[in-house]
Amino acid sequence: MEHVITGFKTIAPSIPYIINGIWVTLGIALGAAIIGFVLGILLSLCKIGKIKLLSGIARAYTSIFRGTPLIMQLALAYFAIPQLIGLNDVNPTTCAIVTFGLNSGAYMSEIIRSGINAVDKGQFEAASALGVGYWPMMRDIILPQAIKNILPAMMNEFITLTKDSAIVSTIAVTDMMRRSQIVSAEYYMYFPPMFVAFIMYYIVVLILTAVGGRIERRLSRSDQS
């Protein structure tokens, strides 16, 4: 135990450096969540639409991104594809955000699709009876109701993105995980710096979970009133 305490005292000057990596972590998760949300809406509308080609493409996209490891997708995007097309300078943070966003879009599309399917069919019929077009109906009537119903699931997806973002350390993005590895190599000790990152991830997830729970309770009260 004394050895562990000594280790924490040794790395104390580097602890703020590790903790500040949380902004990189949250930035990647937020950027990916925005891309995933927009892409998820487009894919979900294609899936429930009547154009078979678009529906098939959307389902194939979802199957590929949900059926392969995220770390493999990240490796392909950062190492393999740039080499294939002759691109030498790839920004790792941008690559991470785009890759995570494309992956999240596949999961978000299923979440949004289930939300749309949960909307009362009478809403569709009423809009059609009033002569509202398909896209205006989706934009102004159906999607707002669907998104309200799936906000807790969307929050869970954001939490998952935040946790999974630790793998961006494999492409040298200086998030919390990568910073803990750098500090570990600097001091030749692994437990103290990685435990700091471990606790910070846990705290962030607890905060996001509490926020998600609060949103869910507010939505429940609004539905009851």
From TrEMBL:
GO terms for molecular function: transmembrane transporter activity. The keyword Transmembrane applies. It is a multi-pass membrane protein. NCBIfam families: HEQRo_perm_3TM. GO terms for biological process: amino acid transport. The keyword Transmembrane helix applies. It comes from Sporolactobacillus inulinus CASD. It is found in: Cell membrane. This is Arginine ABC transporter permease. InterPro entries: AA_ABC_transptr_permease_3TM, ArtM/GltK/GlnP/TcyL/YhdX-like, MetI-like, MetI-like_sf. The chain crosses the membrane at residues 22-43, 64-81, 187-211. It comes from the Bacteria. Belongs to the binding-protein-dependent transport system permease family. HisMQ subfamily. One of its GO terms (cellular component) is ATP-binding cassette (ABC) transporter complex. Keywords: Amino-acid transport, Cell membrane, Membrane, Transmembrane, Transmembrane helix, Transport. Coiled coil: none annotated. Residues 22-212 form the ABC transmembrane type-1 domain.
